[in-house]
Amino acid sequence: MAMDLRQLHYFTVIFEQRSVSRAAEHLCISQPALTRQLRQLERSLDAVLFERLPQGVSPTAAGQALYGHARLLLRLADTTREVVHSAGPVRESVRTGLPPGTPTPWLTQVLTSLRETVPEAELVLTDANSTGQLRMLREGHLDLALVHQRPPAQLTARLLYEQRIGLAVRPGHSLAARTVCRLEDLDDVRVLVHSREQVTEEHDQILGAAAACGVQPQWIFAWFTENALACATAGDAAAALLTRPSAHRLLPDWTWHPLAEPEFRLPTWIAHQPQTRAIIARVAAAFAAIPFQHDDPGSDNSSGPVRQPVQQPVQ
């Protein structure tokens, strides 16, 4: 059976638009012409791909199955054209997740280094939290995940760096005058913290340490990545637990102090599947080769990279 790539492209647009008329408008062709192409594709496959509804179309089980295969074939066709018309080496896509708060200077160094050390790698970056990245890695939608929680043991992973967790204090609050904040200073203070689903280990460590010390902050739990100020304002928080880069980006008018006695750190791991393309392991090694330079002279705000994998895939 000959496969018409144009018909596959039309099919994917209809699938994504859930409407033949909207797909025709998107493709700049007439609706009858698009309908004919769809019927020809269904006849060639001997399968009904869409259920016709009053408000559009809904993919059948056959349509659902074809969609992923069609996207792959179209992507391969595009890659073939790029290879034929390119005088340079073939570049491989490496889909990489980035967690909120990734330090821009460090990431810029990594990307600059990759152009020299792994020039055939083409990074496709996706912003996502740790839980979402690990799910996408498991489902095959990411090749590399940078996460703030220890990856599952079945993945190949290494620790890239750690950032010190501190306290961003609202302007005018008495804690803003401190140089260092201790956990006991937070007693009865309204403090914004990430929800447990975002930073599970650090969440449990901080709350456990406070309970062990008899300290009772008024914790305000919220799931946030960019809207820390809105969450703090809504919760009438006097302070927020964040790393320094995140505090400076999200709460630029607040004063940040390192949290001491005890000290807490937010790790960043890089993880990938144990059985994967060689280029993915090379890109992961390139990430790990760039030391994390913190911007807080006078305090031990981070650790250097760990260059050897600290977790091995289960045999």
Compact overview of the structure:
By secondary structure, the protein is an alpha/beta fold.
Tell me what the structure shows.
With 315 residues, the chain is of the alpha/beta class. Helix 1 crosses helix 2 and helix 2 packs across helix 3. The protein folds into two domains: 81 residues, Winged helix-like DNA-binding domain superfamily/Winged helix DNA-binding domain (Arc Repressor Mutant, subunit A, Orthogonal Bundle), CATH 1.10.10; 224 residues, 3-Layer(aba) Sandwich (D-Maltodextrin-Binding Protein, domain 2). It is elongated and about 75 Å long. 39% of the residues lie in helices and 23% in strands. Strand 1 and strand 2 form a beta hairpin. It is built from ten helices and 13 strands. The C terminus is likely disordered.
The fraction of residues in strands falls at 15-25%
CATH overall fold name of the largest domain: D-Maltodextrin-Binding Protein, domain 2
Domain count: the total is 2
The CATH class name of the largest domain reads Alpha Beta
Examine the secondary-structure arrangement and name the CATH architecture of the largest domain.
Answer: 3-Layer(aba) Sandwich
**Number of β-strand runs:** 13
Number of helical elements: 10
Morphology call: elongated
Q: Compute the gyration radius: what is it?
A: 25 Å
In the predicted model, the low-confidence regions spanning at least 5 consecutive residues are 295-315
- Oligomeric composition of the shown chains: single chain
One letter per element, helices H and strands E, the order comes to HHHEEHEHEHEEEEHEHEHEEHE
Report the helical percentage. Answer: 25-40%
Report mean pLDDT, rounded to a whole number: 86
The SS-based structural class is alpha/beta
Main beta sheet strand tally, sense and closure: 11 strands, mixed
Distance between the termini: 42 Å
